[in-house]
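Record 1 of the preview.
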Amino acid sequence: MDFQKIFFLALRFWPGFQRLWFKGDFHSLMVSLLFGWVLLLVWMATFVWPEFLSKFVGPVWFSQILLKVTWLAIGVSAFLAAIRPGVLVGNMPGKWQAEQQNNLEMAQEFYLQANYFEAERLIRKNMVGGREDVESSLLWIAILRRTRRISQALELISNTDRLDAALPWLTELRSEKEQCLRIKIQTPPAHD
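->
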């Protein structure tokens, strides 16, 4: 077992860390930081300055009980973080991500050939279950724009813009939004 696998296996016990590492999720950053601060505080109160809690909480026996309950809560949360389904370290590129990347590449080829129906079909496979795939969303937005489904494209832009993973793609999302709005302004409304 190499160092990287051992490192990620150990960090499975840190709540929020895996999602933070692999997805850059802001909520996971806050969970990881909170867990780290509580762990540091409890570690210091246990090993470095045992009287720390009794100064703020009250009698020594009560602070010791509080300390033991906090250690138990830390252990339970670490255990739950380790067994929680989600990002699996051993499968990190994994079969699903390889299939997702393959779908994206094939969809790009179909898009460049102006076969928007097939490109959209492959992109929808990547988006099943509300997965946060910004690259697929961008290609889908371009397909919707090319097929003049502007309202759907604008809705998808606003949904994608809210994702934490979309931060590196904000320039492209703004560009797509501007193009869609330009088309919407230039297109006369349909009369029934």
